[in-house]
């Protein structure tokens, strides 16, 4: 059945969900099976090759395959456990792509002649789970495993697997065409939960991250996708991602492919460990404009091939080795970096097929050469001669890579490397140096030879300091201090008091405040009421005829912000601080009766109405009694809600259409 838009949308939803990765795979399996995009089939090992994206593109380490196979034989093969992770994709129906899939398997086998089974050419499927077990059983069927006959007696699990096969979940190749990262997802999950588990190492995680980045994922997305497989290095996977991003040759990450191939040639999956991985990734060799990417990769390769292994961890290089290089052998380190880079260029320019290059290193038996060399230069010359012939040269510039978040330090300029070494440096940024006291400098330029900082003194000419990239640029500290500069008179003169309208407006408001105060204190004294408490309010102390009680407002004038409220001559009027209980009155309390006329929702109780009273040329808010008030009656005005209710009643009603 073809992939429909609905199935694609549902698969995208599942893969983007926050569900645990094993649950995602189970849900995807149900989706494929229910839509005819997967099926359960029984096949023997001869029908399978390894998916090129298995273990992040590392495919398989032959030493791991043998180790796992022997462990499986010694413990006893359980077909039920084998079937829990037996998942494979159909080989591509596209002839060109299928040929590439077979070629990748032939290359993998050619690097492990006599150990891994040969690719026959009639295989149908590509494993993303149970790959080591299947490959080992295929080797047994091809007669490559010694003493295999003892496990192949009639009716035994091994004999049944070889003669009858076991149950697989077979996924359609169209799924891989639509979801390019799907094999990576299945491989990372299935390789983390096998009965005889080979957890993903740092090198395999580098391969997975590299493949994810090539599929268009960001570094963060690639790291998260790799984390789903529960790799052995999950606690420091971000360090592995940083190594991939900075030191492996740019967008295509060719040095990852080198490390993967190298590790397969030199031994089983040895873990580097958190201490070494963080050391080789973040170590500061104190080289200006040179992060030594080739040397770091060489150290990682040496560690992978280490003959000193303890509890599956390589124990060759330690921090003391790198400290010694940094302190005593900087010239040799720079020379080694140059020679390694030249050797890499020579390897890339060699007229050899990828599958043949490994033979140059004399690794027919997968061991290490016993030959000793006098210097790196001698090794480099021998390599160039073997790769290119006597007339070959070891240097021709590789094409410039397109800009990417992944750094290509093999081709980076000194200025680019300097910016990476000193991430605090930014053109246009402000800096200080202890040699120049409190003076502030701006970084004007950072080129391949120097960094130029400029200081601009007040009323004097600016001057610059050029710092060679070989000097310690870390001494230039980023600062939050600003560069003090003379401001043009035209930019500030309009804000002087005599020219600033805002200053005049403030004076006008103060004048209006004084006028309001003078008007208020000169009003005739009003009696016939008193304060009540608590809460503080007003009541009549005598019977008051209609319209005879007027309470004028007073308060602080402020700029009108357009909000509802009392106004005086275009200014907002705000009350003095309210007194909730008359027992709390202090010497600083200001009582204005106007503000203590309380709102009421009882229309019959309302006896005060808001009006305006004109005094001294000002229109001032005023409460006037709208009806006669009896002695002892509280002074109340209509609440806003009551006014709105009465207004709605008074509005003419629309007639219903007949």
Describe this structure in words.
It is a single chain. The chain is of the alpha+beta class. The protein has 4 domains: 197 residues, no CATH class; 214 residues, no CATH class; 57 residues; 149 residues, SET domain (Beta-clip-like, Beta Complex). 38% of the residues lie in helices and 14% in strands. The strands form 7 sheets. A 5-stranded mixed sheet has the order 1-5-3-4-2, with helices on both faces. A 5-stranded antiparallel sheet has the order 11-10-9-8-12, with no helix packed on it. The protein has a 3-stranded antiparallel sheet with strand order 15-21-20. The radius of gyration is 42 Å and the shape is elongated.
In short:
This protein is an alpha+beta fold and 658 residues long. It folds into four domains: 1-197, no CATH class; 199-412, no CATH class; 422-478; 501-649, Beta Complex (Beta-clip-like). α1 (5-16) runs antiparallel to α2, α10 (202-214) crosses α11 (219-227) and α11 crosses α12 (237-247).
């Amino acid at each position: 059945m073809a992939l429909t838009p609905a199935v694609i949308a549902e698969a995208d939803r599942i893969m983007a969900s926050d569900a645990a990765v094993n649950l995602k795979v189970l849900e995807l399996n149900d989706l494929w099976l229910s839509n005819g995009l997967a099926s359960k089939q029984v096949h023997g090992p001869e029908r399978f090759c390894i998916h090129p994206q298995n273990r992040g593109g590392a495919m398989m380490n032959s030493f791991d395959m043998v180790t796992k196979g022997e462990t499986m034989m010694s413990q006893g093969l359980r077909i039920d456990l084998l079937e829990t992770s037996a998942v494979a994709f159909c080989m591509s129906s596209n002839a060109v792509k299928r040929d590439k899939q077979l070629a990748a398997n032939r290359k993998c086998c050619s690097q492990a002649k006599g150990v891994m089974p040969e690719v026959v050419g009639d295989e149908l499927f590509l494993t993303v789970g149970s790959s080591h077990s299947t490959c080992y059983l295929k080797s047994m069927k091809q007669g490559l495993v010694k003493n295999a006959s003892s496990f192949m007696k009639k009716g035994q699990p091994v004999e049944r697997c070889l003669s009858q096969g076991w149950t697989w979940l077979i996924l359609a190749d169209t799924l891989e065409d639509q979801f390019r990262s799907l094999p990576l997802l299945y491989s990372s999950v299935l390789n983390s939960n096998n009965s005889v588990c080979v957890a993903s190492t740092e090198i395999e995680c580098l391969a997975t991250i590299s493949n994810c980045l090539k599929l268009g994922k960001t570094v963060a997305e690639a790291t998260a996708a790799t984390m789903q497989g529960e790799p052995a290095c999950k606690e420091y996977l971000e360090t592995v991602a940083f190594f991939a991003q900075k030191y492996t040759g740019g967008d295509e990450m060719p040095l990852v492919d080198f490390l993967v191939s190298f590790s397969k040639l030199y031994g089983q999956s040895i873990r580097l460990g958190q201490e070494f991985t963080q050391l080789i990734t973040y170590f500061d060799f104190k080289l200006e404009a040179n992060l030594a990417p080739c040397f770091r990769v060489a150290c990682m390769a040496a560690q992978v091939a280490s003959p000193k292994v303890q509890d599956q961890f390589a124990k060759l290089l330690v921090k003391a080795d790198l400290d010694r290089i940094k302190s005593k052998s900087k010239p040799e380190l720079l020379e080694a970096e140059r020679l390694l880079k030249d050797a890499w260029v020579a390897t890339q320019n060699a007229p050899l097929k990828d599958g043949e290059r490994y033979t140059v290193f004399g690794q027919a038996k997968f061991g290490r050469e016993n030959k000793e060399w006098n210097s790196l230069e001698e090794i480099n010359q021998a390599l160039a001669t073997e790769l290119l012939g006597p007339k070959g040269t070891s240097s021709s510039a590789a094409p410039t890579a397109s800009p990417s978040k992944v750094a290509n330090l093999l081709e980076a300029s000194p200025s680019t490397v300097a910016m990476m070494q000193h991430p605090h440096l930014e053109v246009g940024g402000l800096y200080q140096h202890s040699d120049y006291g409190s003076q502030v400098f701006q970084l004007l330029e950072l080129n391949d030879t120097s960094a130029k900082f400029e200081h601009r003194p007040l009323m004097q000419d600016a001057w610059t300091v050029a710092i060679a990239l070989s000097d310690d640029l870390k001494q230039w500290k980023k600062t939050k201090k600003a560069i003090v500069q003379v401001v043009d008179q035209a930019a500030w003169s309009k804000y002087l008091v005599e020219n600033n309208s805002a200053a005049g407006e403030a004076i006008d408001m103060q004048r209006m405040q004084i006028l309001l105060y003078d008007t208020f204190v000169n009003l005739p004294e009003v009696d016939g009421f008193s304060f009540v408490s608590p809460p503080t309010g007003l009541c009549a102390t005598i019977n008051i005829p209609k319209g005879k009680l007027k309470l004028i407002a007073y308060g602080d004038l402020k700029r009108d912000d357009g909000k509802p409220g009392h106004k005086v001559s275009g200014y907002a009027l705000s009350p003095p601080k309210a007194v909730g209980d008359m027992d709390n009155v202090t010497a600083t309390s200001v009582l204005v009766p106007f503000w203590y006329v309380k709102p009421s929702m009882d229309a019959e109780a309302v006896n005060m109405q808001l009006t305006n009273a004109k005094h001294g040329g000002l229109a001032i808010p005023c409460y006037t009694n709208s009806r006669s008030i009896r002695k002892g009656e509280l002074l109340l005005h209509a609440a806003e809600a009551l006014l709105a209710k009465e207004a709605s009643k008074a509005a003419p009603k629309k007639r219903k259409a007949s």
